[in-house]
Specification:
single chain; alpha+beta; seven-stranded antiparallel sheet; glutathione biosynthesis; EC 2.3.2.2
């Protein structure tokens, strides 16, 4: 395996297939292939963005521009990420907002160290598991008051700001407040998800008043305003985190939830705290890939990579049944452990280091048949929408941040005149006695949202993430494989056609008995699909479930940042 040591952007030298170029206008014989792009992989949507002083990549261009404005005014990457996240809560409420949770990995240039932040909230103290059982429920409902847990994002902002930030919160929230008052044009994909979420949660109080224009969700290009959110942001900017967790906002949330038959209270809000945690890593062919430990699912990506490292992935080729089969079977194994072990570590002893060890990967690999799809696997002895953003600054700081309401616009619980929806993350608890992820009061649920980072020789290399429920660890692994094994650059790695396996056992208690199904984006050949079916895989097309990718890579040789944002979302990478 040839690995790059001096040129970071591709992880290894990438050679264009030999073509004799006679002029800028290429002429091929009838039997030749023609490509839309003259350089790089034909599936790439654009070139990487390259800049010296700073880079931001978010899922909505206005948020990217807000981040760049903060960087240009002297703020650092952490300041810019907070400002961008606040902006996304306004312009992309279909995926995030201050009613949800937050996780982050920060590379601090001063201490030359990675820091992890778990800003996820806990279940209401007054809600007992017996309530669900008495109602005859085997699963926690998707929407309404019961799946609501404490929103941790705002506390996450202040934790990040107090430890690493340089600018006051008033300045960071000012752009979002202005846009919320004066309005912004809604982008295409977000307009689509607005309409979808109206069908899901439009019947709940506050949706029409907060998120529609004359009773209809905003269309592409329409100017949308959220004065209630502007008012909430102003209170947070001036009153700090306590304005949200111990002031009027918390009181409104508690009173509203009680009116709706919910359990989240003022006391639950006031008791919330986030935690600094240690990121964990696995080395993949010389690169250290970093994730956060449970209650998130990040280590599933490391488990997948550890198994894949035992194969000649490059030799298999990207569009081959052998590669897709191997990836899917490795994913099935990792997700069985995910279903059994990933939960709040304050309630269980999670065997994280064993799960991400190379020795364990070898044991698990022995369960993979090279020719037959497994219908059921055992653990060793999802739908969701999210935003992911990453920012890097001229000082060398980088942040990988992910934030979500869970199911698009969350639970549908919209506290009176606050301008945001509360998350439904509590849906992910299991109502099964003795399960690691069993519901309990004051417990953090299993979480799907995961930021990621890559270092090489203890130096920062890449900050990246892929939003989208249970899609995320699968795509984290595929981004790494695309760059290291298949030699793609940062943009190509995200644009490449993706593999998605669905139907594994879940932390909510579902058990896979039929092998689940494989979905392949366009770009994989019919031959590959046919061979997979012969192996026993079920192939099923899905639409829009492959996640959304942003990434920043640091090229130490040239002292520049590379940025990438893909075509599946409305996002943008930009630098200066």
């Amino acid at each position: 395996m040839l690995l790059v040591s001096t040129f970071a952007p591709c992880f290894r030298h990438y050679f264009v297939k030999p073509l004799v170029i006679a002029s800028a206008l290429l002429t091929f014989s009838a039997a030749s292939l023609s490509y839309d792009r003259i350089t790089g992989e034909p599936f790439a949507t654009r070139s990487e963005v390259i800049a010296q002083n700073g880079m931001a990549a978010t899922s909505q261009p206005l948020a990217t521009q807000v981040a760049l404005d903060v960087l240009k005014s002297g703020g650092n990457a952490i300041d810019a990420a907070i400002a961008a996240n606040a902006m996304l809560g306004l312009v992309e409420p279909t995926g995030c907002g201050i009613g949800g949770d937050l996780f982050a990995i920060v590379w601090d240039a001063e201490t030359k160290k990675l820091y992890g932040l778990n800003a996820s909230g806990r279940s209401p103290q007054s809600l007992e598991m017996s309530h669900f059982i008495d109602k005859g429920l085997s699963k926690i409902p998707k929407f309404g008051p019961l799946p609501v847990s404490v929103p941790g994002a705002v506390d996450g902002w202040f934790m990040l700001s107090e430890r690493f930030g340089t600018k006051p919160m008033q300045e960071l929230l000012a752009p979002s407040i202005e846009y919320a008052k004066n309005g912004f044009p809604v982008s295409e994909l977000i307009a689509y998800y607005f309409e979808l979420n109206q069908k899901r949660i439009g019947q709940y109080p506050g949706f029409t008043e907060t998120f529609t224009i004359n009773g209809k969700t905003p269309k592409k290009g329409e100017i949308f305003r959220n004065p209630a959110l502007a008012n909430t942001y102003e209170k947070i900017a001036t009153g700090g985190r306590d304005a949200f967790y111990k002031g009027d906002i918390a009181r409104v949330i508690g009173a509203f939830m009680q009116e709706q038959g919910g359990f989240l209270s003022y006391e639950d809000m006031a008791a919330h705290y986030s935690e600094w945690i240690e990121p964990v890593s696995a080395n993949y062919r010389g690169y250290d890939v970093w994730e956060l430990p449970p209650n998130g699912q990040g280590i599933a990506a490391l488990q997948i990579l550890n198994v894949l490292e035992l194969y000649d992935i490059e030799g298999m080729g990207r569009d081959s049944a052998e590669f897709v089969h191997t990836f899917v079977e490795a994913k099935k194994l990792a997700f069985e452990d995910r279903a059994k072990f990933y939960a709040d570590p304050n309630f269980n002893k999670i065997p994280t280091q064993k799960l991400i060890s190379k020795e364990y990967a070898k044991q698990r690999q022995a369960l993979i048949s090279p020719t037959t799809a497994a219908k059921r696997v055992d653990a060793g002895k999802h739908e969701g929408d999210t935003i992911y953003l990453t920012v890097a600054d001229k000082f060398g700081n980088m942040i990988s941040l992910i934030q979500s309401n869970y199911r698009g616009m969350g639970s549908g619980m919209i506290p009176t005149d606050l301008g945001f929806v509360l998350q439904n993350r509590g849906e992910m608890f299991a109502l099964k006695e003795g399960h690691f992820n069993q519901y309990a009061p004051g417990k953090r649920p299993f979480h799907t949202i995961i930021p990621a980072f890559v270092t090489r020789n203890n130096e920062p290399l890449m900050s990246f993430g892929v939003m989208g429920g249970g899609t995320q660890p699968q795509m984290h692994a595929q981004i790494i494989v695309n760059m290291i094994d298949f030699g793609m650059n940062l943009q190509e790695a995200g644009d490449a056609p993706r593999i998605l396996h669905s139907g594994s056992s879940t932390p909510e208690g579902d058990i896979m008995t039929d092998g689940g199904y494989v979905s392949l984006e366009s770009g994989f050949s019919y031959k590959t699909r046919r061979e997979l079916m012969k192996m026993g895989h079920t192939i099923q097309d899905v639409n829009g479930a492959y996640g959304g990718y942003q990434a920043i890579l640091f090229d130490a040789k040239n002292q520049v940042y590379y940025g990438a944002s893909e075509s599946r979302k409305d996002g943008q990478a930009a630098g200066y």
